[in-house]
Amino acid sequence: MDREYIRDKVILLVEDNPDDQLLTLRALKKHNVMNEVVIANDGAEALDYLFGTGAYAGRDTSVMPQLVLLDLKLPKIDGLEVLRRMRSDDRTRLLPVVVLTSSREQQDLVDSYGLGANSYVRKPINFEQFTRAVEQLKLYWLVLNEAPPPAP
């Protein structure tokens, strides 16, 4: 696959914890993920980015992320509500969403899949395990997976 094609695809990281943001960015870099990463610090910011509102008013919403990495425990609007709103809008209904969370609650797992998450990954505790998880995410979601076409 053409490296430029991969590099041009954006990853939306929806994560409020600065340490987890840094850890994710470091793990992506370690595995040579060249994609631009847009960070949303809460659920409201994620929705603004996706739908071109608020601070992202005027953003070209015909260009959507290749992948959304979504934490569940977020301020303002939680991850499950972000997922619910994404799946209820034609523009974002088919976007690949990987729930990347430290939640151990079975109900979060069930609710995430029930709302249309494509994958649910619990954040490993140590960096080495986390980087291996990110490597697997990269291989599948950014290289092997064929993303849906943009919404009309």
Automatic annotation (TrEMBL):
InterPro entries: CheY-like_superfamily (IPR011006), Sig_transdc_resp-reg_receiver (IPR001789), TCS_response_regulator (IPR052893). It comes from the Bacteria. Residues 10-138 form the Response regulatory domain. It comes from Rubrobacter xylanophilus (strain DSM 9941 / JCM 11954 / NBRC 16129 / PRD-1). SUPFAM superfamilies: CheY-like. One of its GO terms (biological process) is phosphorelay signal transduction system. Signal peptide: none annotated. The modification 4-aspartylphosphate is found at D71. This is Response regulator receiver protein. Keywords: Phosphoprotein. The keyword Magnesium does not apply. The keyword Nucleotide-binding does not apply.
